[in-house]
Amino acid sequence: MRSFGFAVAPEQSAGFMRAVTLLGPRSMEDIRQAALATLAPPPDRRQEFEALFRAHFHGDGSVAVEGDGEEETAVKDDGAAREDSVEARREEQGGELASAREQLSARQFVSDEDRLVAFRHALPGALPARRSFRTVRTPSRGAVDLRRSLKEIVRADGDVPCPLLRRRQSVPRRLLMLIDVSGSMKLHTADYLKLAHAVVQAAHGAEVLTFGTRLTRITPSLRLRDRDQALARAASLVDDWDGGTRIGPTLLAFLSVPRFAAFARGAAVVILSDGLERGGHAEMETAVRRLAARAFRLSLATPLAGDPRFKPETAALKTILPLLDDLVDGSSIESLTRFMLSLKGPPAFVSAPSTTLRVVPPP
Fold this sequence. Notes:
The protein contains 13 helices and 10 strands. It has helices spanning 10-23, 28-39, 46-57, 117-126, 146-155, 189-202, 219-222, 227-237, 247-256, 258-264, 282-294, 315-320, 333-340; strands at residues 74-77, 129-138, 143-144, 165-172, 175-180, 207-211, 214-217, 268-272, 297-302, 326-329. Strand 8, helix 11 and strand 9 form a beta-alpha-beta unit. The chain folds into 3 domains: 2-57, no CATH class; 74-114 and 173-340, von Willebrand factor, type A domain (Rossmann fold, 3-Layer(aba) Sandwich); 131-171, no CATH class. Helix content is 36%, strand content 15%. With 363 residues, the chain is of the alpha/beta class.
């Protein structure tokens, strides 16, 4: 159901399995009723759910996705990576080639020397922190630990030279990377994936997803320590390399899956994209607004900002500009690593209600 765009939480999947176990099942109708009760497909997609159920359990053939004429965004999680890998079918370059047309292909990465060792060592200490509800012992500047203090009083027959203190622990915030793999970003996706591998290896809880015409979570693949193996597995998982661009629908699909949307709550979210959305940009504005409300810091790194003459002249970029905390140069690994190591500092770009954008290089 997730591959056909249904928002199904892990708790719903577990509830469905428990319901089937409880019912027996005695018939396929019991399974269908259990699926309706626990997976809760939307009423407007009931016919699509019925067709999907018949195709899966009765083998009635392929499922034709019904809708209002617009394509549904497929969501893919890295559960089991395929071993086969197919080279990209055609070559595209330039932002003007961004489109909403889906093209499925695979990608292979060429190994080069690791320029990210220093970045991996520095990243954990460079992430913004939050106060955890857990507490740790501290010799000073904390609250009185009443329980430990009372134990020490009893142990010392009522004599405690100084009270024992605790303070709330500070933990790094989650780092979430959303990488555009459409045709207009073809020259940069290889570097972005190498950077993403370094982030996942260095930062605990970091998450990486790719989007173009589909949405794919590749974090488990990037947890492999060997970078070449990790990128090869991620390349075999993503189906929409160098295809069209549907930024708004894919970001909305990300927010519609509860487990994915939780990745953005209180996190530093970095979107690596040129922001070239074809067609209407209402969905993109809605998605970015919802992301900004969830995230601690929302940043857009665009390779177009590598040109000093760059200005956000598209309607989509002008619309989302007030929602961003940062708009930075994403044209190279060096500029991106500098920016990520400055996430503790002030925003690299503070939006203002003006028509001219000034891109401030990160410190």
